[in-house]
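1st attempt posting a full record on here, be nice pls
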Amino acid sequence: MRRTRAALAVAMIGLLVGAVGCGREVSGTARPDPEPAPLAVSDDGFGIVAGFDDAPAQIEIFTEPQCTHCHDLQEAFGDQIAYHLTVGGLRVTYRPVTFLDEASDSGYSATVANAMFAATEPAGDATTSGTQFQHFVEELWAHQDPGGPAFTGAELADIARSAGLPEAVAAKVSDTAPAVDIAAMAEANYRALADADTPGTPTVIDLKSGEVVDLSDDSWLDQLVAP
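the predicted structure (as tokens):
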């Protein structure tokens, strides 16, 4: 059965401390902006950027849909990430990888990654905000089923609705039509991940300093967004 967010709410922060992550061999408060946090695809086409361009803190998150430590990260910090996106203090670029799939362009992780990119596409006048997208990520990982069957289109639509995405966008997500070249995305993002000191997931990079963030420190996000 797919896990709910509530089931592991207490334990997640502790699990992050000292966690190796998933891999493969080889004091102030930001002022709220009157506009919703924007959402876009990165210039290279393989990342999803949530938040304002001028956010003082900017990070990149490499994540694998079947990685249990990535689930832990969203469980422990997802709502805080959403808050800082909303008030303009944080900009996040998500870079999915799919190395836990048997094939690079199909399977559970590929399906989730494709749904993430589909959620960025307008559906008529309906668009997803950066905050809504962050909640979508939280819900996808909350329903994580490593090694299980890929989500169906109906399941993806339900998750999108639960996250607050517009109905028209949820319908687009449910279509499961290719929203990105999964194989090319997976290869490019894994090459970028392998350049980090710890090429596993989740890996968070502070884009201002270029340094990998120490996720074993429970205050890592507070430190990043502190003025």
